[in-house]
Amino acid sequence: MNEEQQGSLKGTSSPLESVAAETGAGSEAAGGRERKLGAESPIAIGPRELAQWRLEALDAAPVGFLITTRDGTIVWANPMIEQMTGFSPGELHGRDPRIFNSGLQSESFYREMWETILAGRKWQGELINRRKDETLYHEEMHITPVRDARGEISHFISIKRDVTERRANEKALRRSDELFRQVTENIQEVFFVYSPEPLRVIYVSPAYEHIWGRSLGEVYGRPESLADSVHPEDRKRALETFLQDRQGRPTETEFRILRPDGALRWIRIRTFPVHNEAGRFIRVVGFAEDATARKQAEEELCRARNELNLALAESGERERENEKLTELVDMIQCCQSREQAFKIIEEFLGQIFISCGGALYLISPSRDEAEAVAAWGLGAEAEKTFEPQDCWGLRRGKVHVVPEANSAMRCGHTHERQDTGHICIPLVADGEALGLLYFVCPKDAVAVSPEVHLNPWKRIGERAAVVGERLSLALANLQLRDVLRQQSVRDPLTGLFNRRYMEETLDRELSSAARRKDSVAVAMLDLDRFKDFNDIFGHDAGDLVLREVAAMLRGNVRHGDVVCRLGGEEFVIILPGASVEIACERLEAIRRQVQSLTINHRNRMLGKVTISAGLAGFPKDGVTAEDLLRAADAALYQAKNEGRNRVVLPAAAS
């Protein structure tokens, strides 16, 4: 306590003595009387020493002390007040306690407090105050009036505790409790907690009443009622599991219960032991869920499995079909051409549908005709071509089954005998009809078929539909592969083979020529001053020149020769079996043909087109593709240097 505070309390020792009394710091030795501190001998304590001890005790107290006059002026505060509020005792001296007001308490709150303490009664309560740094804190406060020698209230002693952290913890706990309540009261499973020794149910979530059909009060009041609800046939197993629970082992089990309304339900229970910090097993927590729907689904699945096993006993023929069909699709993917694939389809479908004949039709690019590309058995008698509108299956876009030949639903493209029926399966891929799979089946063959059911024709239609679906994808992939192959080896502008195809073909021809000891000529051609066409007439005109020259080259080579666009305005011609001399004559004729070209672009005549060419021959000028192309390129370079529009042989180039 500083001198200023001590001075303000001169002659008013009773407030401090009251504080000491409030906190147990007082003594019977007040006023100079002796006080025994031990059992062996008394120790005399003087008033000053006792007062000093009291002050030191108040300064060290873990709570805040504040002394005010009757009108509310602060005359003394201990150090803990500064920790709580940020105001030092010196800053508070002479100030009004309203310095702490947060404005969150109502006027009636403070009015009731002052009425109480001015009436000489103690007041206690909790409020939210403001620190020096403007932050808020929760405070628990006790105020005691202090009377002077005349019995008049002269001072008030306030004992303050900062309970902010406690209130935050209590709020968090309430929030946690509320969250727990919402979760447990809204989950479909039953959450429960019980103490094993002695047996006592601590908590059961409301879902128990919905699942068990019994009240929560019953299970809280009589825990053994849980066992009463278990189906008699499952009671022994349930009790064995319960004993394991009480021994602190995690368990999982299923049993049936009987509800009061007579309903039977399957229950799945999982339990887990809970241990305290010392490792002692103290309680069991668990979840119980209504497993009735799952059990019913399992029973239904079991029945379905039995039916499936019966069906599998009759599926030997279907398995053979699937194996054949898989093999068919694999074979189609390995075919080099559509014609080869059609032969494979004809053979395999004849093996899959032994009792039925049929045919495979593909729709023409013009979409106005369906043409038979494969036929087997009775299908060989079917129409070779027909209009797609004559088929109900193609018109409807679905499998069309006609068991009777004289049915009004018979397709117009069929001419079956009276003892047959037919099935049409549209072949569709990516929403586009590719063709038709047509089956014609003798009635007696259907009647004795191993897959006879209530509707054998429908069953055959289902089998045929599966075949059609997989066949559609296989044919679509085959067509796509042909298109992609063409795109991968063709130059999109001229339609000639591209550089990649040229390199593959040249390697192949050189290997073949080496085995046969034959010759191969390679010509490299370049359009003269092609850049001028682009600069003067535009790139569209340049593209037209490239297409015209490419068409002329394609039309003036032998059947086995390969014309490729190397890139830009460069071309390569591979002439298998041709000597350099023969190739030179051929190239001279081509050069003259190019020179005579007249090209009209947008009603405007383009200038004269000429080419330069260089030749190389295998094996004289090289034995590898790289050597031959280098030699032909050198000859082409020489032709350019000599004035263009000419053909140069390797010897001239060297």
Write a compact overview of the structure shown:
By secondary structure, the chain is an alpha+beta fold.
Tell me what the structure shows:
With 654 residues, this protein is of the alpha+beta class. It has 4 domains: 162 residues, Beta-Lactamase; 108 residues, Beta-Lactamase; 169 residues, Beta-Lactamase (2-Layer Sandwich); 164 residues, Reverse transcriptase/Diguanylate cyclase domain (Alpha-Beta Plaits), CATH 3.30.70. 43% of the residues lie in helices and 23% in strands. The chain is built from 23 helices and 21 strands.
From the structure above, extract its key features.
654 residues, alpha+beta, six-stranded antiparallel β-sheet, 43% helix, elongated, single chain, 4 domains, Beta-Lactamase
> Class by helix and strand content?
alpha+beta
CATH topology of the largest domain: Beta-Lactamase
Task: Tally the helices.
Answer: 23
Basic shape: elongated
Q: Helical residue percent?
A: 40-55%
The low-confidence parts are 6-13, 25-41, 448-454
The CATH class of the largest domain is: Alpha Beta
Q: Major β-sheet, in short?
A: 6 strands, antiparallel
DSSP strand (E) fraction? 15-25%
State Rg.
Answer: 53 Å
Euclidean distance between termini CA atoms: 117 Å
Mean pLDDT: 84
